[in-house]
Amino acid sequence: MGILIRKKSKSRGLHLPENKITDYKPIEMLPVPEEVIIPLIQNIGAPCSFTVEKKEEVKTGQKIADSKSFVSAPIHSSISGKIKKISKILNPATGKLMEAATIGSDGEDIWVERNPLYDIEKSQDYIRLMGIMDSLKKDEMLLKIREAGIVGLGGAAFPTHVKLSPPPDKDIDTVILNGCECEPYITADHRILLEYGRQVLAGLYIITRILQPENIYIAIEDNKEDAIDYIKGLLSEMSLDKIFRIVSLPSRYPMGAEKTLIKTVVDRSVPMGGLPMDVGVVVNNVGTAKAIYEAVIEDTPLISKVMTITGEFNNPKNVIARIGTPVSSLVELCGLKDESYNKIIIGGPMMGNILLDSDFPVIKGFNCILAIESRTPRERNCINCGRCVSVCPMNLEPLTYVRNTKNRNTEGLSNYYIQDCIECGLCAYVCPSNIPIVGYIKAGKAMLAGEKKAK
Amino acid sequence: MNVNSEKYDENAGKNLLITHAPHIWKGFSVSKIMFIVVAALLFPAAASVYFFGYYSMILIAVSVAAALLTEFIIKKLRKKSYYMDGSVIVTGLLFALTLPPRLPVWMAVIGSAFSIAIAREAFGGLGYNIFNPALAGRAFLSICFSKEMTTWVLPTYFNTDAVTGASPLSESFTYQVDRIEMYKNLLFGNTAGSLGETSALIIMIPGIILLALKIIDWRIPLFCLGTVAAGSFLLGEDVIYQLLAGGLMLGAFFMATDYVTSPVTGNGRIIFAVGTGILIVLFRNFGPMPEGVAFSILIMNGFAPLIDKYVKLRPFGYKGKKKNA
Q1: CATH topology of domain B30-310
Q2: Residue among B125, B316, B317 minimizing CB distance to A381
Q3: Deepest in the core among A71, A405, B147, B176, taking most CB within 10 A?
């Protein structure tokens, strides 16, 4: 099958200055850190609790926390050594304290026992690899994915085994591999496609074995031509070109958001308050596909993360960092330029959060550390110009959220469907009055949630 | 609400900003928009000096200065920080362009001050006003000084002797026999009228530039002019004459498109523009005054919040929305 080209986005959006300055830099494997801090909350869903105790010796890849709940993913030690302490740290996503284990390395990096079925780096016998994957049972693969602690690595961190187990009444006919990476600066997924393309495709094959969809798309924005060409070559090399189809998409933020991606690729609209599976689609990120391959075939849990460290650094790069590595050590590694930044952000410039505590560790959902200089002129009055309305990919009216949040009018907030906002940030990006609209939206959503709770 | 703050970072050795996402900004600020609009308005302003001599320059300068001074004083009285974003200059310029060419200067000062003080600042300043300030100022003057506000002169082209003439649309205005000649006069400004409205062409050019820069929404001028054309056609009027004469062009491109006083959604703006067009046709054909652009827009300004309330966008995925969601 040839490449499917989508020239126009089917939802609103904007082409942003890309600034992908690290797209040519190979992923660098970082040395094992001396100490890691592994927090308990790393995914959406039920929190885990520790299965190990203080002073206990752990090996790399050993499970250290788990939950009995279905919507949850276990957490593993990313190094070998001793648990130094279990303490409380601030969760920047919620502003509440959460438990975290500090593990001191023994310098050996001794792994738990693993039973790899195949090694893609050593052997390129794809027929054998396919044979192995075909022989695995669905439940067996799902269990391996769960036990490896895999969550959506695009940033949402939703447990992957849950996503891959749709309820029986949902008929999944389409799987989309999300390689859009529409946020400016970030190049982690781009590099994964170029350097771990075989693992990604094998991971996607496992996903399709589990869900058995009719259509499988690999969605890549057209600003990553080299990745499209490379994956195209790989598909024929691995004789997957009969079942997988590459879709080239316009580079238009927020193309990588699930709803806009599904709309542009297969022209289906996920209903308000619904999930992609409501329209028969499951979307997975390329990093997740790579992790699925590693879990199912190489028996390796999710203990590291490909990240882009970029912006105002002397030496911006793409790295593989062990989960739990303090962000400060990664920042130090790349060397901040002295004067030219005033923000350090976890994530991209459009949706990332400010790093409040530089000792906070890398967790599963992180994909970028960005140092940036941003001039923030004062917030001015809204002049009703409607730019936020005309740019909103969800067809909302963001200006109403500012007004209604200021007036604490929760009825007004839900009348204008604040819950359907995906917080992509385009409204605030284009706002001529420089109103931090997303800040008001987050506050408004919290206000609404508080009111519901009170009832 | 405190959304931005700073925090001292030990590793960085300096204060780092704490803000919400997004962390990049397009940088197309209100000031930039306003100064582009000012630049666009310099076309009709310069033309008015050409048509009506240096006195129009004085009227324009005085109106803008009075507007700026009024805003400054009121901001100080309200103990608010003063910040020049250009919007007051736009208001002052627009106001001046609606004035008759020989209006006494002191009347222009009163009208301009009214625009800013009552129509804008009394409502809370930029973004909060319900009515277009420039038009409100003009409407105020029409009521207070109805004689002076309807004294028109033919273009003088730097001659000092002004010849009073009837503006188009007024009953005393006589149709010229040669239609093509009349259209030309209206297009190029060889006619009586207020400072900025005589030449339709000089207003359309910057208007189209603003459309191309996406500063104003194409829906408003298109549907406003379209409605006037259709309404005039139905009533058996000369359509081209109705489009080119009077303040319609200035109103459709520069007044009705004011962000603050027009609806925010595309469909809302269409309703707003069509409503303005219908009112203009009604005023022109059945009203006591020859012209009704200013009052038509002001009336629709009053409806804009209502339109915004009832013409809402359907969010993405609205069709398949779950009943309990």
Answers
A1: Ammonium transporter fold (1.10.3430)
A2: B125
A3: A405
